[in-house]
Design brief:
The chain has about 230 residues and is of the alpha/beta class. It contains 7 helices and 10 strands. The strands form 2 sheets. A 6-stranded mixed sheet has the order 6-7-8-3-9-10, sandwiched between helices. A 4-stranded antiparallel sheet has the order 2-1-4-5. It binds adenosine-5'-triphosphate and magnesium ion.
C-alpha cells in the first residue's frame, strides 16, 4: 500500500466577524511514502487546519485530498472515519490519552476499534510499549506518567494499526528538551523504517530532522525545500 497523499487547490474558510477567514488558502502538496514532512509557520498561519484537512479530520471548503487516488472529500462520514482509523495515526501536543484507561488500554483502543479481539489488542499494545521502554508503565494511568512518557504512549497508540501516515501537531510543545529529544529520536527511528510522517512544529529541532520543510503564511505555503 503506497499511500501517496495529495492536496489540490485546498481551501478552508471560517466565518469571522462579518466576513470569512481563509485558514488554508489554495494549498497544493504531494507527500510521498517515506517522507518526513515538517510544517512550520507563525501562530494562526493555518498549520493545524492544513493537518486536519490532510488527515480527514475536517472537510475542506473546496479542493481535494487524495490517498492513492481515493478522494477523501467524497467519502461518507463513516467511510472517512474507517479510513482514518485504519490508515492514519495521530499525535497531539496535549497527548489526548484517555484518563481513566491505563497506558496499555490506551494503546489497545485503536486496535479494538479496528476489530481486533481484546487479547490480540492487548498483546500488540504490550509489544509496542515494551519496544519503547515503557514495559514497566503498562498499568499506569496517564496522571501517573511524565509528559515524555505520555507522549511515547501516544506514539505507540498512533502506531497500533501500522498506519500509512502519522500526523503530529506540536508533538514536543509540552515537553522539556530531554523528553522532546526522546520523542524526536523515536520519530527518527520510524522514519528510517520508512514510516511517512507529517509534523507541525515551532521547534527548530524538529525541522532539522525532517527531510522536507514547508513554511506557511496566512494559509499559503510560502516556501518548501526538499533536503538531499
Ligand atoms: N474552527 C474554527 N473556527 C473559526 N476560525 C478558525 C477555526 N480554526 C481555525 N480558525 C482560524 O484559522 C486560522 C488558522 O488557524 P490554525 O489553528 O490552523 O493556525 P496554526 O498555524 O495551527 O496556529 P498555532 O501555531 O497557534 O497552533 C486562524 O486565523 C484561526 O483563528
Ligand atoms: Mg496549531
Amino acid at each position: 500500500m503506497a499511500g501517496v497523499l495529495k492536496a489540490k487547490d485546498l481551501r478552508k474558510t471560517y466565518p469571522s466577524g462579518a466576513g470569512l477567514v481563509a485558514a488554508v488558502d489554495g494549498v497544493n502538496i504531494s507527500i510521498r511514502p517515506g517522507d518526513y514532512l515538517v510544517i512550520m509557520g507563525v501562530s494562526g498561519s493555518g498549520k493545524t487546519t492544513l493537518l486536519s484537512l490532510l488527515s480527514g479530520l475536517e472537510r475542506p471548503t473546496s479542493g481535494s485530498v487524495t490517498v492513492d487516488e481515493l478522494d477523501l472529500t467524497k467519502l461518507s462520514e463513516r467511510a472517512l472515519t474507517a479510513l482514518r482509523q485504519s490508515r492514519f495515526g495521530f499525535i497531539f501536543q496535549d497527548f489526548h490519552l484517555i484518563g481513566h484507561l491505563t497506558a496499555l488500554e490506551n494503546v489497545a483502543v485503536p486496535l479494538e476499534l479496528a476489530g481486533k479481539s481484546g487479547a490480540v489488542a492487548r498483546q500488540r499494545a504490550l509489544e509496542l510499549l515494551n519496544r519503547q521502554g515503557l514495559g514497566d508503565r503498562t498499568h499506569h494511568f496517564p496522571h501517573q506518567l511524565s509528559g515524555g512518557q505520555k507522549q511515547r504512549v501516544a506514539v505507540c497508540r498512533a502506531l497500533a494499526n501500522r498506519p500509512s501516515v502519522i500526523f503530529a501537531d506540536e508533538p514536543t510543545g509540552n515537553l522539556d528538551r530531554a523528553s522532546a529529544d526522546a520523542v524526536l529520536g523515536l520519530f527518527d527511528e520510524l522514519h528510517q523504517e520508512g514510516q511517512t510522517m507529517v509534523v507541525v512544529t515551532h521547534d527548530p529541532a524538529v525541522a532539522d530532522r525532517g527531510d522536507r520543510v514547508i513554511r506557511m503564511e496566512a494559509g499559503r505555503i510560502v516556501s518548501g525545500e526538499r533536503r538531499a
